[in-house]
Design brief:
single chain, 7-stranded parallel sheet, two-stranded parallel ribbon, alpha/beta, 13 strands, about 40% helix
Length: about 300
């Protein structure tokens, strides 16, 4: 009988981490989970602050036998990273360095799937953005991710670490925090429908256009990267097209059971905003066969359904 693959997921209590753990289990993986602070009961959870090297070393020893490490632990909300750049760098950059170096010592045969971000590209010099696009990060979150991304490339070249670097576009889905734009819109609509908020929806910049993915397509891509990605490579994970925030909001409003007014909140507008960005997944598709399967309407419908059920 074939021995099942064993995955260690850092940041496993987060939005994507939970989706990934669930998906990998359905695919026959044994899954070990790690996150900061109190963790779920059971022998498959480990409490670890990735900014502390001693804790990361202990995590890697605890996860002996793991064939793959999915490194998701990160400060993932750009405004939070901008307000606390030191904390962002301690987790997003130093945490990645600890993960890579401790893996080399404790799990020398394992593959690291490092979750970078399409934010590392900054304002696009050409569209669609390919993996050959220069890195030009424009905020502390993106700067830390770009540095960690490059460290992984360096460690592959100098220490032969088996690593695949993923650069996902914006992704969302049921369970995402309402600090992220699409989830926030869906939650506000659900609140208004329940008459827990005045029928006025607060928004930021609606003219920006982004490449959006459903979280289910993302975690499926992470598994394919683990199984078929080429060691040392960086891959875009994206839909290949841009949808404006205004269009996404209009589609959500089309499903609202109540009329809603729109009002711009200056605090929701970023100081540095890329007007439009979308990527190319041609390289990842060529190497793994991955393609996005869930469209923007499926994503938005799922978000609205989630918040309608989860508004108390």
């Amino acid at each position: 009988m074939k021995t099942p693959m064993q995955a260690l997921i850092t940041g496993a209590a987060g939005f994507v981490g939970q989706w990934l753990a669930s998906y990998l289990r359905t695919q026959g993986w044994r899954v070990l989970c790690a996150d900061r602070g109190p963790v779920a009961a059971g022998d498959d959870w480990f409490s670890c602050d990735v900014s502390d090297r001693a804790q990361v070393s202990g995590l890697m020893r605890w996860a002996a036998g793991s064939t793959h490490v999915f490194h998701l632990a990160a400060v993932s909300f750009v405004p939070h990273a901008s307000r606390n750049p030191v904390g962002c760098f301690e987790i997003n950059l130093l945490g990645t360095i600890h993960a890579a170096t401790c893996m080399k010592e404790c799990l020398p045969g394992a593959r690291l799937i490092f979750i970078s971000s399409s934010e590392v590209y900054g304002p696009p010099q050409f569209l669609p953005v390919t993996e050959e696009h220069p890195l030009n990060p424009m905020n502390p979150y993106a700067i830390a991710k770009a540095a960690a991304d490059q460290f992984c490339a360096y460690y592959h070249a100098t220490e032969s670490l088996d690593v695949v670097r993923m650069r996902p576009a914006n992704h969302s889905g049921p369970g995402q925090a309402d600090s992220f734009v699409l989830s926030n819109f869906a939650r506000q609509i659900a609140l208004i429908e329940r008459e827990k908020q005045e029928p006025v929806l607060q928004v930021g910049n609606l003219d920006a256009a982004r490449d959006f993915l459903h979280v289910q397509d993302v975690v499926r891509g992470y598994e394919l990267a683990a199984l078929h990605g080429r060691s040392g490579e960086a891959y875009n994970l994206c839909s290949g097209k841009a949808v404006s925030i205004r269009e996404a909001l209009d589609r959500l409003l089309g499903h609202s059971t109540r009329p809603i007014q729109i009002e711009q909140d200056p605090s929701r507008v970023r100081k540095s905003e890329v007007s439009e960005i979308y990527g190319s997944h041609e390289k990842f598709t060529r190497d793994t066969g991955w393609r996005p399967e869930l469209d923007i309407d499926t994503l938005l419908d799922g978000l609205l359904s989630y918040w309608r059920v989860n508004i108390p």
